[in-house]
Fold this sequence. Notes:
Blueprint: E1 3-6, H1 12-15, E2 20-22, E3 26-30, E4 38-42, E5 48-54, E6 59-66, H2 75-89, E7 100-105, E8 114-119, E9 122-127, H3 130-134, H4 136-147, E10 153-156, E11 173-177, E12 185-190, E13 193-198, H5 212-221, E14 226-230, H6 236-243, E15 248-253, H7 256-269, E16 275-279, H8 282-288, E17 296-299, H9 311-328, E18 333-339, H10 346-360, E19 364-371, E20 389-395
Parallel strand pairs: 1-4, 9-10, 14-15, 14-17, 15-16, 17-18
Antiparallel strand pairs: 1-3, 2-6, 4-5, 5-6, 7-8, 8-9, 10-11, 12-13, 18-20, 19-20
Helix pairs in contact: 2-4, 5-6, 6-7, 9-10
Amino acid sequence: MAxxxxxxxxxxxxxxxxxxxxxxxxxxxxxxxxxxxxVAVYASDGSLLGCGHYQIGSIAxxxxxxxxxxxxxxxxxxxxxxxxxxxxxxxxxxxxxTNCFRLVHGEGDxxxxxxxxxxxxxxxxxxxxxxxxxxxxxxxEALREVFGERLKAxxxxxxxTAPFKAGLDLVDGYLYQCEGFxxxxxxxxxxxxxxxxxxxEGQKTGFFLDQRENRAAVGRYAAGRCVLNLFCYTGGFSxxxxxxxxxxxxxxxxxxxxxxxxxxxxxxxxAAERHTGHCCDAIDFLKAVPEDRYDLIIVDPPAxxxxxxxxxxxxxxxRRLNAAAIAKVAHGGLVxxxxxxQAVDKEAFALAVFSAAASTGRRVRILDRLNQPADHSVxxxxxxxxxxxxxxxxxx
Length: 396
């Protein structure tokens, strides 16, 4: 096993259990590690700090264990069981109204570079590092041990997330299917609402599970309101609003595939007569609608900033988009607005929305601050994991 030695004084973050080793902190590499290998990390005085997956780039090691120089024989099973216990504590594993949740959330569960979502017995996995991709079969076997007959399938969807320069064979496909399982989609329950999730054609793992609690919040405010759901994807917020008794919901997204699945979800909800889907650019649609038409608007765009270099452009985009929504919502209306860009912190997002509100000249109040749910857990030692932030605004 290769060994990495850090520069003097650069071990402090690992002693605080932060899971990243940056390339600039390394003074010496003993051995010739390939990308994805497990390497041992040492302080400059030779004391062992831990081990993790080696990779090429700014983040050189993603730590998997502290105080050890290798992974134990039952490492993957033990880590998956620990992650499952967190979801049990959050009331998600045996909930008759919800049978989909995030099982593993990267650094939040001590498994940096790994995402696993659970869809009523189907695990959809995404590796964001070469190490996790190379370990995918071991992870699959551990899932089978943990869940037994409850596990229907394990689908690896890493082709769009694992580093393509690492020389990996990035082809999505099933790592496991129980006898008779041949589906690429499944109906799931979330707070009693039914959704069709397609993990082969859909974005991410098939559904945006991180908005579960925020969708429920929309449901608490939607009764009797005319609702606009921008960047709707397959209609998560729309379905909650319809189920809560919204007068009408307009859903807007530029993806034709997403809109087809949206219509199927609306049909499942039995609310087609109170819903209209619009396959077009969300910002163009918002600009064209008359003022006061909607008294609840949901603004949930994709990540405008996927890295720090795009931060300024992202903040300008958030200001323009939120200014348009605040300007168009009816008097006494509500705006649910979100950012899923990790590079945009809560303070920067709030300031962008403040600037947007000020530019409209309307009186705006913050009713609530919104974030990601418990199954998208954040390690206290890795605050960077808190990526989803939102505001509920009351506009006069």
